[in-house]
Amino acid sequence: MHPNIEQLYTIANKPTRRILGLMSGTSLDGLDIALCEVKDSGAKTALKLLEFTTVPYTADFKEKVFPIFSKQLVSLEQLCLLNPWIALQHAAMIKAALMCWDVKANSIDLIASHGQTIYHAPKSLHPNDEFGPATLQIGDGDSLAVATGIITISDFRQKHIAAGGDGAPLAVYGDYLLCANALENRVLLNIGGIANFTYVEAGSSLSQIIASDTGPGNTLMDAYVRKHFNDMLYDKDGIIASKGTINLDLLNALKSDSFFEMDLPKSIGPELFNLAYLNTAQIQSNTESISKEDVLATLNRFTAETIADGINKCIPPGTQFIVYKSGGGAHNAVLVKHLVALLPNAKLASTMKIGIQPDAKEAILFALLANECVAGTPLYAGEKATKVPITMGKISFPN
Ligand SMILES: Nc1ncnc2c1ncn2[C@@H]1O[C@H](COP(=O)(O)OP(=O)(O)OP(=O)(O)O)[C@@H](O)[C@H]1O
Ligand SMILES: [Mg+2]
Question: What's this model's pTM, rounded to 2 decimal places?
Answer without folding.
Answer: 0.97
